[in-house]
Sequence to fold (541 residues):
Amino acid sequence: MRYDYIVIGGGTAGAVVAARLSEERDVRVLLLEAGPDYPDEIPGELLDGSAPVTRGHNWDLHAIAGDDEGEPLSEQQRRIARVFQLASSRLGKMPAAGASSAARFPYPLGKVVGGSSAINGGLALHARPEDYALWTAAGNDWWSWEKVRRSIGRMESAEADKPPLPLEMSPPEGLTRCQEAFLATCREMGHDRIDLRQGTADGVGVIPKSFWNGQRVSSSRLYLAAARRRPNLTIQPCCLVDKLVFEPRTGALTASGVEAIVDGQRCRFASGHVVLCAGTISSPAILLRSGIGAAEEIARVGGETLLDLPGVGRNLMDHPAVILWAVPAAGACRAGETVHQVMLQRRSASSPPLCDQQLFMLSGLVTATLPPLRDVVGADLAIGISAVVATPTSKGRIELLDLDPTREPRIYLNCLRDAADLRRMMEGLREAWRILQGERLAANTERVVVWDQSIIDADPLLERVIRTTVRGAWHPVGTLRMGREGDAMAVVDQRGRLFGCSNVTVADGSIMPVIPSVPTSLTCMLIGERIVANLTRNGDE
Fold:
């Protein structure tokens, strides 16, 4: 069967795209997803909103924080790296920590219909007007705040088959003991209590969530639940897309369909238009295997270049994070309580227009799911404060090792490569340390793991420990950056249309030119909403 649209990837944005396309009853839509689909009974771990899911419904990806092997680590730094590696991933079995800051660490993005929105912490924050101003400055005026806010307004409004976003916020009486202590300490230190949904003011507040009655609500549950009843939508799960198939070249490339692997067999699906929503890591990998990307990189892995676009796989950005871990005092928290509830956002000493630092209180982390972490911490539960640089400028890349679609690409995050990012991380961690050492959290803490005052006070040691332990927050964006035609590193135009190809559109986080200053889930959904509206209605909105 020939489909009018093939949507590659049923993740955070792809589920939105497929559902919206299927509203046009005269078109046939095929959604291809590498992971499983749960149309009827959703597994309990995907519904449980207390903590992110990092095994069972995830890509087996690993990332490298740095860009080279770096200097050897001391024994103390090696131990710190191992603690952070295990605790940040929540995986039960891990590769050993490497000998440098370039050690590989798990990067378990969602591999299931709903993508990372089905496995993440459910943080539901829209990007700020200042974020979109940076997109506009990069040549994407279709993403000006004046245009984008109308689309956000639709997402925040209820529809017949979809509730408004965000879905809920924890009431004050629903905060856990450690979360209450964090919030109160921030207030005592002079930080205002704010509504995190309302812009960029400095302050501490309760995090809005894509939860409903404590259950995680993914883009699949939000958008595909009603769309599944439509006869013009077909969902093919457990389908690993290898590459796009192109017609004999006469001018601009024209995709005739998709080649994929289903049940170990290679299949071809024919399409009039391909919408690539496989995510920031997989979307550029699919294009590179298809012969679209930097000619020298494609040649290096033995491919044939059809379209030389050097920006494919470049401009990778993520929010760098470093966590101060501690063992809770008896009764301070319990297994199964919500991990994320409260966040402090603040401006660094450089006073940027956006709050460029975020501190998240983490509580109730079960160390039994991480046997090596249990050995180091020596307790059943852990708490901590995650320090995040919200507006990083450091950029990384992805690279193919070969043309095998089952082999993960190499992911270089280059966390804190820019000196300004490092300075902001150091400042944020020192604020986090002050909060953790405050009377309220100290009363809920038995002991801090690994970190101590000597590390916090000494710039050289703090920098080395940061570079050892920094990891991405699993918010990758930017590897198929949008921009003006003629921009050598732009891959798509501002409506997601692939340069040099007549019928391929990209609609996921990979097209972001700059990472938003908030977790990226709602922004990815917004990208799906706006780009599919342009496809079906040709509207400028």
The chain has two domains: 1-37+112-165+215-318+475-541, 70-107+171-206+319-393+418-472. Residues 86-102 have pLDDT under 50 and may be disordered.
